[in-house]
Amino acid sequence: MGLSQPERMHSADPAAPAAEFALRFLSAFERDDPAAMRCELEQATQACGLGTCLDDVLLPGMRAIGILWQRGQCGIEKERLATECARAWLQSHEVLAPAPDPGPPVVLACGPTDRHSLGLEALAILLRYQGQGCRLLGARVSTRTLMTAVRASRPAAVVIVSHLRVNHDRAAESLRSAEAWVPELFYAGEAFATARLRRDLPGTYLGTRLQDASSLILRSRLRTDTAKLKGVAALPDPGTPPEHADRR
User: Fold this and answer.
1) Which DSSP string do the residues of the chain spell out, in sequence order?
2) How confident is the model at residue 29 (pLDDT cuts 50, 70, 90)?
3) HSE on the CB side for 202, CA within 13 Å?
4) pTM score, whole prediction
5) d(CA 155, CA 163)
């Protein structure tokens, strides 16, 4: 059972140390050794940094495991064990994040029909390590639930993630619902991978790498904070839907 070398490497640079950790992570998965999987993630973090570990070890590894499952080369229980192993490792780093800086949080949610939230959880950890408060809503977040969270927390930004193109339209509904209520709106995932799929959508596409996405979100937060200091940014009253909102 296994993937070919190019498939295993996915988007990682073969010359980078992270590529070797990614291979060992998959090898541990194939041996049914979750402790070794966590060990490889921890060693990759120490050697390459948390962001690189997430972008070039954890997420490519989990995508490769998903391909194995789709091909029938591993069972659903094995795939779920790998996901929970990765999630437990992420949570062990979440508790080490510093206290958030003052200010509104970033709300992160999957689309209403998207069940895979691991990448979203990883992005939240990157943001938290840089002092950004986050409210992580998780998988299959209905538009109604999203808007309740937005109205309650008045976030600095909303991030919507959708990984399957079949879920694109529902995720787009979430984006449009939040558009007028937040200073910044972002989206990511395979459902938005092409320019055609992003056509006429509000907000900013975050790309495919978590480190780049985190930087984009934090830069937008800086712009919003600067605008507020200048007295030019004002959100609508949460009790009354706005008539319009200026978007990019």
Assistant:
1) ----HHHHHTTS-TTSHHHHHHHHHHHHHHTT-HHHHHHHHHHHHHHH-HHHHIIIIIHHHHHHHHHHHHTTSS-HHHHHHHHHHHHHHHHHHHTTSPPPPSS--EEEEE-TT----HHHHHHHHHHHHTT--EEEEESS--HHHHHHHHHHH--SEEEEE---GGGHHHHHHHHHHHGGG-SEEEEESGGG-SHHHHTT--SEE--S-HHHHHHHHHHHHHHHHHHHHTT---PPPTTS--S-----
2) very high
3) 23
4) 0.84
5) 23
pLDDT value, residue 225: 65
Instruction: Tell me the pLDDT tens digit for each residue of 71-119.
Output: 999 999 999 999 999 999 999 999 999 999 999 999 999 999 999 999 9
